[in-house]
Amino acid sequence: MKKLVLAISTIACFVTTACAQTDAAVCGSVPQEQVSVQNVVIPKLPQEAYFAGERVPLEYFDVRESLQREMTIINYWHGSLSYIVQLSGRYKDLICKILKEEGVPEDFFYLCVAESSLQPVTSPANAKGYWQFLSGTAKDFGLEVSAQVDERYNWEKSTRAACKYFKKAYEKYGNWTLAAASYNVGMANIDSRIGYQSIDYYYDMQLPIETARYVYRAIAFKTIMNNLSAYGFNITEDDMYKPIEYKVVEVKGSVANWSEFARSHNTNFKMIKMFNEWIRSNHLNNPNGKTYKVWVPTQR
Are 51 and 180 in contact (CB under 8 A)? Predict the structure, then answer.
């Protein structure tokens, strides 16, 4: 009898433990000793915000909520945002210098951040480069796109091409915010929506979800990246990537092998490629004798 009682007790204990574990799994509860302490807060909105000198109407609830959505996503995008901030130490001045030369507000730098995270990426729609041009649009704005050369990955040329677009859109719409939005969805789409909504104010327009979030994303990047410590990012000047010193070598003919070209300039193909992502092949035919400016780093 004692053995039977002991066996029943053991089974009951096993069943109770199993049920407790099952309930915990079903309910999503975690043993107390495994709980980690988090401090998740909704990032505060700025008291006022501007994009390209144009005021963001934060008095509207939908505008506040739209901006806060993007700020919350970006604020908890810890590793990626930290890397973007580091990259901005190397490329922000370069981009802003071109924007200024082209007469485009420097806030469009944050549109580049929103587009590509300052990296040579390809989108699901096959838009490529730092400003995410589609092939056809890139060619329309003077960029070469081929198997050997893709200037969507050229920092200077792609930024100047983007500026051409922004200025054309600004001339059409009369404000930088809608010009920026049109970069995401195209001027034809914006024109159509202006036609049937009888509105040409970005913050009042009904737009495709991606475009509706687009300018807010740039504003969110601007807000957080200019107030890093206020949003919990303890990134110092020493953490920022520094601009790399380089010399410009003009190539007017063909290049049989870019690796050999690199060695002849006391570097390697990795370094040449890093600073000239527009090089898309291991050689360059250049049948038209076009002049290409190759950035050759002079430090490592």
Answer: yes
Tell me, what's the pLDDT at 20? 44
Phi, psi of 294 (to 5 degrees): -100, 125
pLDDT band per the 50, 70, 90 thresholds, residue 162: very high
Q: Please say whether the beta carbons of 214 and 180 come within 8 A.
A: yes
- Using a cut of 0.85, tell me whether the model's pTM lies above it: yes
Burial class (CB in 10 A: 0-12, 13-18, 19+), 29: exposed
Measured distance CA(70)–CA(225) in Å, rounded? 13
DSSP string, 152-220: GG-HHHHHHHHHHHHHHHHHHHSSHHHHHHHHHH-HHHHHHHHHHH----GGG----HHHHHHHHHHHH
Is it the case that residue 126 has pLDDT exceeding 90? yes
Q: Which of 121, 108, 129, 115 is nearest to 180 (CA)?
A: 108
- The CA distance from 294 to 300, in Å, is 17
278: closest CA among 133, 68, 85, 72?
133
The answer to whether 69 touches 209, Cβ cutoff 8 Å, is no
Percent of the chain with pLDDT over 70: 88
For residue 282, what is the DSSP state? Answer: S
